[in-house]
Amino acid sequence: QQQVKQSPQSLIVQKGGISIINCAYENTAFDYFPWYQQFPGKGPALLIAIRPDVSEKKEGRFTISFNKSAKQFSLHIMDSQPGDSATYFCAAGLSGSARQLTFGSGTQLTVLP
Amino acid sequence: DGGITQSPKYLFRKEGQNVTLSCEQNLNHDAMYWYRQDPGQGLRLIYYSQIVNDFQKGDIAEGYSVSREKKESFPLTVTSAQKNPTAFYLCASSRSGTATHYGYTFGSGTRLTVV
Q1: pLDDT (tens digit, 0 to 9) for every residue of chain B, 115 residues total?
Q2: Which residues is B36 bridged to in the sheet?
Q3: What is the pLDDT of residue A7?
Q4: Interchain pair A93, B100: CB under 8 A
Q5: Residue in A88, A101, A102 to test binding to B, most B beta-carbons within 10 Å
Q6: What span, in angstroms and rounded, lies between the C-alpha atoms of B78 and B55?
């Protein structure tokens, strides 16, 4: 019930292309879905987040698409750049839960110049 | 600047030794967390604490111990009972009950290697 499944494990995209990372969850009580970006040797940093009352949220080149009925959400990176090369984690959170966030397994994105 | 400081950045442990990883935050956050990161396995929760002098086990607490004597500090001890401790360890914090509003702030991690 607490698991968040993320795919693909790794992704290679050409510069200027669209990167798409998908996540699925089981617990319908989750009410917060953030994405984190992690560069090598650093801690993850919050990139963008969405709540289940909206189907899409866009911040610059980054968009979260959310499908409540399918219990899936995805990160789209438009016009991908080599500087976007990093590991991306999806997560799901439950308001009021002491555990707070459950993370996916991560996707290593490489954007080729 | 406010943030989370983890030290050391690299740590080497001999077989049978206990080692302690430091995590200090000056964000005035109530909640603190320890995660272990292994390739292909994402972030796995070791321990978490919502308030001083209280903490709970996460999914992989065996072989680890923590203390929370001060709001700012949440050290993690990797004991000799942890059979495979080589990993990247991340500390995080959030305002209590608000991780689902503002997310976590992470430290830069400690890479522990058994030699």
Answers
A1: 569 999 999 999 888 889 999 999 999 998 999 999 998 778 999 999 999 999 999 999 999 999 999 999 999 999 988 888 999 999 999 886 665 566 789 999 999 998 8
A2: B44, B89
A3: 95
A4: yes
A5: A101
A6: 16
Question: Do B92 and A106 make contact, defined as CB atoms within 8 angstroms?
Answer: no
**Please, what is the Cα angle at B110 between A93 and B44, to 5 degrees?**
30
- How many angstroms separate the CA of residue B56 from the nearest CA in chain A? 9
- The mean per-residue pLDDT over the stretch A59-72 comes to 95
Question: Are B4 and A6 in contact (CB < 8 Å)?
Answer: no
Residue pointed to by tokens 């109530």: B30
- B residues 42-71 closer than 8 Å to A (CB): 42-43, 45, 48, 50, 56, 58
User: Concatenated DSSP letters for chain A?
Assistant: ---EEEE-SEEEEETTS-EEEEEEE--TT--BEEEEEE-TTS--EEEEEE-TT-SEEEETTEEEEEETTTTEEEEEESS--GGG-EEEEEEEE-TT-TT-EEE---EEEEEE-
Kindly report the nearest CA distance between residue B73 and chain A, in angstroms: 18
